Structures are given as structure tokens and as C-alpha cells.
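User: Modeling request: complex.
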Amino acid sequence: MSVIFILIIASLTIAIGFLIAFIWSVKTNQYDDDYTPSVRILFDNELRSKQQSNSKEKNK
Amino acid sequence: MIKEPEQRITCYHCGENCEEETIDKDDKNFCCQGCKTVYEILNKVELCDYYTISKAPGANQKSKVRLDKFAFLEDVQLQQKLIHFKNEKQSHVTFYLPQMHCSSCIWLLENLAKLDHHIIRSEVNFLKKEVSVVFSHSNSSLRSIAELLTSIGYEPHFSLNDLSGKAIKKYDKSRIYKIGIAGFCFGNIMLLSFPEYFSLGVIEEKGLKKLFSYLILVLSLPVFFYVASEFFVSAFKSLKQRYLNIDAPIALAILITFGRSVYEIIGGNGAGYMDSMSGIVFFMLIGRFFQNKTYNTMAFSRDYTSYFPLGVTIINEEGVEQQVPISKIKVGDRIKIHSNEIIPADSILFYGKASIDQSFVTGESFPVEKSIGEIIYAGGKQLGGALELEVIKDVSQSYLTSLWNNDAFKKTEEKGVSYIHTVSKYFTFVLFSIAIVSAIYWQINDPTRVWNAVTSILIVACPCALLLSATFTNGNMLRVLQNFGFFARNAGVIEQIAAADTIVFDKTGTITEQTNSEIKYEGTPLDEQIAQYVRSLAAQSNHPLSKAIVSYLPSYKKLVVKNYHEEPGAGIVGMIENNKVAIGSLNFFNPNAVQIDVGTKVYVQIKDRVYGYFAIQTNYRQGLAHVLGKLKERFKVSLISGDNDSEYSKLKNLFNAKQYFNRSPQDKLEYIEKLQKENKKVIMIGDGLNDAGALRQSNVGIAVTDNVNNFSPACDVIFDGTKFSHLDDLLKYCTHNKLIINISFSVSIFYNVVGLYFAVQGNLQPVIAAILMPVSSMSIVLLTTGLSTVLALPIKRKYKLRGRLFLKLI
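Assistant: Request completed. Predicted assembly structure:
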């Protein structure tokens, strides 16, 4: 039966891990805007960042 | 009139018809230079994918933004307030862009870095219509970014509200954390309690039992000390004010459940009722979250500062124009107001031709012409050219803004005590009586059971069912109402609507549509040539009536108008192909004639012959007559308007009730106050700033708007004007609120009776509590949400509502 001690502690640790992940995701504003990312993901991201656009210019 | 089939050419940028001129560029048509310029800017940096994501995604660029409009952004103090993060290299700023409307917009605005290399990153929040920009401030400035955004058709909007400091109100996330933690603890405690329930208290291994119950104790600590704290705080506050709110009995139940469970666990007598406790806390928090889910894209507490611009041009003593923040305007300053700007303070017209749209301030439907020396009140919007004004009152002391100094704006947010609190009082009273009676009974018969029985009663008869019924019913009703374009500020509003007995309407913009006035021509029919004369002449004027006539008459080629003359407030005259053409009010042609309905009839005269007139009528909202008919059955209806009484006779048939015209914003507020003194519960339905006082004073203030994200004054409900014909059904739906809550009360009382049956005998097993608690909570949740959804079905079917309308609105 003592295996149950290990199982319970393991399961609690995993559950606490998910709880922390949840709090972290709320804290980092991941639920703030639930619409824009769904549109954003459909764009080609060739010109998203400055570095990329700069390197493009150099290629020209 | 013969209408020639027109070939519709639409603008590649904004999708509007190219009416007067068509500019070609790269085989694409543009309606104006502005649209073409935007295209050229984007074309140069290869951002033309903008046009492939959505068709004609741009905003019309016909009205040019003047060059130095954003000069005020160079003010350092102002910058500090707008920029929310700054280090040596970069600054972070958020712009509000009202024009944002489609996926093309998101794409373009997230690629701002391509247009200006000093912009490091830009990110869009589409629902809030905001773009946050990170830029390097050594090479770029706030002003240049604002101008860049304007040049591509997204003019940022700044309002005085952005500066007040309190504007940046961070969304409180603590409730979400609490729900997460409560759910976590509840689930785990329940799992750990199962072995005990299934073996009915007999667990063979002593160590295991001990481990389980201590783990339960540890897991319940965050629920009791952190998650449930808001119930204790609220209960404590209400007791301090000698008033019993619903949180008080709940806090007591939590306290007793926790105390008794700790006692049992430490004493080694059992696992306690920790799962019931964390369960009710979890469900109640979800209910509150559901009910208080606010629309973060909408603002219910705007005051005049949201409408006023941030900066204004002042002309100093040397005659030099200067951009200053609005807060720096003093009495005596000379200010310059450009076309389409809002006048920030009461002032005297010094120079220029003023044509002021005061619909928002006074409710007048047509612009008012003002001559030099006249006072112009703050809040009006200049439609003509630039004006010079001398400020005579401070911004906060002006005619309109002083309304906010009224007591109505100082009173606390709470409008009436919720019905649920009253019920909870009786509930608590009955509960305590039962507890005392059974305590006395056991004291006589078996004193060892007293403690057990009393705590069991308080544990099992927790009023959480009451709270759950109310929160889930209200929460679901808010969601249903929202699908019909009816956005209530909070759940209390629904109860207030259900209790109301009087409705007061505003006229302009509320029961009339803001756009699309209806035009009819009466008199000798105009042939093609004459129609063209009139159209060409009217096209010279900027007056809204002229504009309405231009759009009404079919377009042919433009004719040259000579000797054009405009008599403000009367009419316009000009020579076309050697014919004298004039349009205007009747006394423009005949000074002796008295025209009763000025501003609604425009006469046409060619070569001294009056042909007829254009009757311009305000369009009432669709279904107004029907809605009013229905509402009159249940409410006392009246109308109070700031406009003149030219529509009196027409409205008389519709309203058949009291009508007041030419009322000031203050009068409106006092009228509502007067009704309330007669013990009436008043719903005020208005739209503009001139209704702000009345909306605030009323029991329920409903602001009607044609764009829910647009500006509406402080109110309890924002209502989408296009759904106006649903109004009576929606108000009726609110009255179901009480019925649903009462039904679920009865159900919860049944559960309470079952629980009390065990409790008064003093043998409430944790397993019974553990079964009763989730079953009753779940059935109440299902019952309330189910009932409120079913009751909405007839309305849904009536208006054939499909899908989620809310998403389409934004």
C-alpha cells in the first residue's frame, strides 16, 4: 500500500504544476485578447520583425 | 425622374463609389487623392497585401487631416502621460484607432515597422481597437508616429480621459486566480475524500487515513485564507454598517464548516467537510465571475472628458499659432477651431463662419449658424471652415460640462439594494431560529449532541444556493441580452429594469436615426436639366441640407456656377447657364413669408419661379410605432427633447403622451428627479451628452447608439440602435429574472430541507453533505441557465437571430 504515498505525492506535484502554469498564463496576459491572435496566425510572417526587414534590404 | 443606369466604379482603397472624380493609378480606381496617397505609401514598401486580405479595407480619405494637428504631442508633460514605458532606447505607447475594422487592418498595423524603421514592434488588440507601438525615441517621436498612422488612414484618437491617470485601470485578475486555486483544491480534496466515503469511514491503514486527512487540511488552507477572503471582507463591511448582506451568512457557514473540519481532522475523528466548503466557494466564485463578466471594450462611465480633444490651437498675443493641451486653456485665450473639431469651452465667436452641430449637446437635429459675437457652447462641433474664438469660461465650468458638478454625478454607484439581499435576510433569520430550536431540544434530551447539531445546520443550510441562483440567472441573462445588442453594465440593472414603471425618451438620435434623413420632393416635377441646376448649386455648399439634396438628385456632369452667394441660415443663390438658381427657406425668396417649419423644407426657385420644395424629414427608427405601442401597455411613456417642436404633430400620434421640447440638459435631469419624487422608477433612454445628467439620475439609463464601440455617455446600458425594434421584448425579458430566481429558490429550499432533516438530528455524515452540495449546486446552475435560455427562445425566433451577433458588431 505504501506505493500509494508515492502516487499521491506524484499526482499532487503534477496538479500543482498545472495550477502554476494556469496562474502564469493569466499573469502574462495570455487571455487578454482572444481574437487578434486567431487572425494573426493566418498572415505570412515574412515582415513581422525589424531584423528581417533590414536583412531583406541588405539583400537588395 | 429618369435614372440613367450608372456604371458603378468603386474605390480600390475604401470601396466607396467614385462619384465626382476617378483617379487612376496602376489600373486601379480611387475616389480621391487621399485614398490614392495611402495606396502609394503602401505600394512603395510592398505592403499591398493589405488589399488582398480584405476587399477595399481602407477608410475614406476625402476629409483631409490638417498638418499640424498632432503638434500638441510634442508637449513633454503630455508625452509622459501617454507613454507608459520608457528606457534609454525605446518607448512604449498605445494608440486608440477607431477606424480599425478588419483583418487587413491588423496585418498592416502589425507591419508598421516596414513603414518606419524606427518602429521596433507594433501589436494590435483588435477588440479594443488599440495598437501598442514600441519605437526608438531617439529617432522617432510620438508626433511622427501619430502622423504616420494618420497618413495610412488610421487617425489615432486621443481624449482628455487618457490623461486623467485613472484611465488606465488594470483588469483585476485576482478573481481568476482565486477560481483556479479553488478549483484545484476542490478537485484534490474531493479525490482524497473518496476513500473515506466509499469505505464509509473505515480505512484499514491508520497511516494512510492520517495522511489523507492532513493533506485535505493543507489543501483547504489556501481556500479558507485566500480564496474565501472576499466573503469575509464583504461580510465584515456590511456588519460594520449594521446591515446584513448575503455574504454574511455565507461567511458564517464557511467559518463554521472550516472550524468543525479542523477540529475533526486534528482530533482524528474524520475528514471533515472540507470538500463541501471548497466546493461551495468554487461554485460561488464562478457564479460571480459569470455575472460580473464585463465588456472590456465598452465604457459605461464616460464623462465629457472622453469627447474633448487633447490639444487645441491657441493664438497668442503676437498672433502666432500654438498647439497646447486642453488643460492649459484659460479664460480670455484666443483659440482656433478647425473644421470637424469640438469646441472645448464656452466662447465667443471672434472670426469665421460658424456652423455648429450641436446635436450632441442640445439635441437639435440641424446645425446652427452663429454670427460673430455670439456665444458658442462647449461640446458643439464646427462643420464649416476654421474659426477664431475667445474663451469665456473654463473647460470644467462650461454650460455643458458644469452638468457634471450636479449631485447626480456624486452619488454612489449602487442604485437600489438587490432583491437577493432582502431574501437572504429572511433566510438567515429562519436559519438561526431552526438552529436555536434544535439546540434547545438537544440540550434537554441529549446535551452531547448540541454542538454537533448546531454546526451541522449551519453547514448544510448555507445560503450559497441563493447566491448561485441569482448570479447564474443574471449572468446568463446578460449574455442573452448581449446577443441582442443590449449591453448592461451589471446584473443589478436587470432587476432595476424589471422594477421600472416609467420610460422617458429623448428625441434626436434616440428615436430618430442619426443618418439617412428622408427627402421628398414636392411641386412641379424637375426635369433632367433643372435637376442638374439644383444639384450643381447645392454642391457648392457645405450645409447638411445641401449635401442631402446633392445625394438625392442623380448625378450628371457638373455645371459651372457663377456669382455664387450664400446667406447663412437662409439659402444659396447662383447663376448657371445664365439662369438664376436659388434654393433655401421660403423667406429667402419672400422676406414677408413666415415659414413655420424652418430647416425641414428647402424651396427651389429658378428664374424667379418657385418650382416646389424638398421636404427633409428625420427618419424615425424602424419599428418605433410598434415598440411604443407595446411599451405603453406596461409603462408610462413620455418624451423630453432639447430640439424645437417642429415634429410635435407627428410625434403626437406616436406618443399620445407628454412631450417636452426645448429642454436643457439640466431640465432633463430635473424632470427625472421630479418623476422619482412621485415614487416612479424611471428608465431614461437617450443618446447624447445632453442626456448625460438624466441618464445618470434615472434608475436605469439606456444609451442608444448606432455603433456600440462609439462614444456614448455614462449609462447603465448601451443599446445598439439597429435593434431598437426589439426593445419592448428585451425589457419584458428582464422581468423574467425574478421568476427564474424564485423557481430555483424553491428547488434549493427542497435540498435544504433534506439536509436539515439530517442536521437537526445531529448526524450529518460528511458523505451526505458531500453528495448534497454538488448535486444542489449543479442542479441550480443547470436550472437557472436553462430557464433563462429557454425564455429567450421566443425572442430569438421572432427576430431570427442566428449565430453570435456580438462578434459581427465588433
